[in-house]
Amino acid sequence: MAPGREQAYAVSLEDVQAAAARIAPFAHRTPVMTCSAIDKAAGFSIFFKCEQFQKGGAFKFRGACNAVQALSEEQRRCGVVTHSSGNHALSLALAAQLADIPAYIVVPSNTPQVKQDAVAGYAGLVELCEPSMDAREAGAAAVQARTGATFVSPYNNAAVMAGQGTLALELLEQAGELDAIFVPISGGGLSSGIATAAKALQPGIKIILAEPRGWNDAADVAASKAEGRLRMDLPKPATIADGLQGRMGDLTWPVIRDRTDAVIAVTETEIVAAMQLIYERMKVVVEPSGAVGLAAALSPRLAPTLGPDVRLRRVAVVLSGGNVDFGARGFWRAWLPPE
Amino acid sequence: MAPGREQAYAVSLEDVQAAAARIAPFAHRTPVMTCSAIDKAAGFSIFFKCEQFQKGGAFKFRGACNAVQALSEEQRRCGVVTHSSGNHALSLALAAQLADIPAYIVVPSNTPQVKQDAVAGYAGLVELCEPSMDAREAGAAAVQARTGATFVSPYNNAAVMAGQGTLALELLEQAGELDAIFVPISGGGLSSGIATAAKALQPGIKIILAEPRGWNDAADVAASKAEGRLRMDLPKPATIADGLQGRMGDLTWPVIRDRTDAVIAVTETEIVAAMQLIYERMKVVVEPSGAVGLAAALSPRLAPTLGPDVRLRRVAVVLSGGNVDFGARGFWRAWLPPE
Lengths: 339, 339
Description:
2 copies of one chain form a homodimer. Helices cover 44% and strands 14% of the residues of chain A. Chain A is of the alpha/beta class. Chain A has 2 domains: 13-58 and 161-319, Rossmann fold, CATH 3.40.50.1100; 60-151, Rossmann fold (3-Layer(aba) Sandwich), CATH 3.40.50. A 6-stranded mixed sheet of chain A has the order 1-2-10-7-8-9, sandwiched between helices.
């Protein structure tokens, strides 16, 4: 980057602040919790930003709501479309319902009925497709052609990135000066929004990315950051953190590359151990993807990654969502006698 | 009761207010949460008093802390003793640890190691006994004789009842005017404390007790209230709400008899359904005993029990605790592949 010439990132602090004003009537200001038992295990103070209490059960509502509220009158009439089976689908349907516009959600046909029902419960218009990325994209394109709906990517979209960044505005007001924020990363919408807002407000803050390495050791963010180029050739991680299997995009990657400080790739057993602390000590529900930030904060690889000059005293960990299908894990059945 | 002659109850509003001042430096002021999805299912607004976020993970800390803090200097030197394998044991150990006095906890030898370890983790001095009520009482008496420690009953103790009642002082400040409070009942310490404080402050408020009927249909509180006499002859309920298998005592029963308005005995499947709503919609952890209040609020037997003249609009539900042994239910294992 030549001196004096500013790199054009997709999102700025001002975009995040505008998003915060736009979503304020709809989104929850989620609480920050602390837990002395976990602080003891970590060796530093952790402020947990609890996005499982966000509308729709995850931070995704912030970005979806900002994208919907930023539409023009004409765009609103045609509605929005996305392809997703997860929290983004739910959140976009809910954001559209609150704005009273249609949301078309292209859902792979192998998506559990409970998730399809949840989208429909927020008045989302479910359109089934074959379970492949090509079919999902073709399905969304077909809806766009038929209805004129605006496509809203789960992460690679400036309005979504700015919406997710609103989390950081709240967090820094709630927790004050921080040494670092641990953020689960997949497509990078949340991380890029947070990094943009937090570094603008507290330039010394470190943004530490947390990704699942999966049983197949497929840590694409760590590999991309290490090489300084977006690695799209690695397999999808085989992980219980099923919300973190996406890939960064052309809008999120430059921010991730330039405005984040480290990546910790955590194992499956580290994710489960973090969940256990969150359930048993904090008494809150978190999905595996949502616990990956704490897994990174507790990882024995954290200190070597940061190096001897970095000392953490006060950090935040984003608990990004709490949408767990307990029934599919046999949890309710475990409380009742066999039939 | 002759006119002009006041019945001597074990606890008064003033006792509860004194307890609140005594425990304020130690106990958490727990949050009140709401959930629009559950309000919709109930047909009225519910304010959830979240005692899973109390120290020790349950409301029990309030009473234990008040009992410890109310000791004389001489009593403190000898410490406290109880027999319990549950939340009262944990809470008394923690309250004693914070006061820097010994707590002897007589624990049945069939108590899971994880629970014994939790008591020891709060510096509780575990004394094992045979797994029967006679052996537990004899064990506690032996400790008393040996050490001079003060026995603190889990519920049938005026200081404990007053301590549990502090929950109601906070709740009415947080939620304002209420039509009713739903409270899980076992020995009646929590219910009697809440009834005493809440009815003194809002005389029209209804205290609705929630108990598990168990697979063996052993609803002793409902039977006792219906007959106006303390029924001690019913079997212990066979229930997953293992914190609610105790019996009322001579101090709690008169308050329960005179200052509570209705009893709803809930089924095991109703308890699990309430837990499911709390985990999946509110995103917080609750133990089965802690979900019994919501099960009662959602029961089809509630309206017939209250009669046609009672209309509920704004109520509170006490979520009394969140100490769940997820590992024993196979929950962590369910996230990892078979070994």
